[in-house]
Amino acid sequence: MNQWLSNMKTPTHVAINYLLFSKLGVDEKYRKYFLLGAALPDIPICLVFACIFLFTGDVDETVKAFRALYEGNEVMIGLHNIFHSPVSLGLLLVVSECVGPYQQAMKIFIAGCFTHSLIDIYTHVDDGPLMFWPFDLESRFTSRISHWDPNYGGQWVLITEVCILCITAFWIYYQKYVRPVWGMY
After folding, report:
1. What's the first-to-final CA gap in the chain, in angstroms?
2. Using CA atoms, how far apart are residues 56 and 65, in angstroms rounded to an integer?
3. DSSP states of 98-144
4. What is d(CA 101, CA 97) in angstroms, rounded to the nearest whole number?
């Protein structure tokens, strides 16, 4: 059960993308799309988990049902991997060439999803994104680092995440309140 309760670390993805955005050299008006790309890949599984919990009312039963869907239901696998799989994101990038005035926003969104996916690929031992979805429903990168399992450095990932969240909070505070007072630009 600890794995699934600690699995929802979407805020760290958003914080990382927040810190990365200024390094992209992209117009500030696209920041929201990059941040949305950090969060959206996890939204479908969060919603499915919440719906199962509302139906069962029991955390252990919810985790068991969710795990079965996550590992074996093709619709659930698709919902999880549409914004996680590098192949799927590449296909979405091709589609973005056809969306006219929204092309740049969609490309920035996909870049945000890709950073999320890259982090997940390297912090999930055996349950990370499917590398070649929708063409392959089995191939995953086997990482040596887990975002939750102490047997694979999960405690260090947690410490790193807390540091990233603290740094991001400090940076936002600094940008909003300290920097304007000092007049530094």
Report:
1. 47
2. 9
3. TSGGGHHHHHHHHHHHHHHHHHHHHH-SSSS-BTTTTT-SS-B---S
4. 10
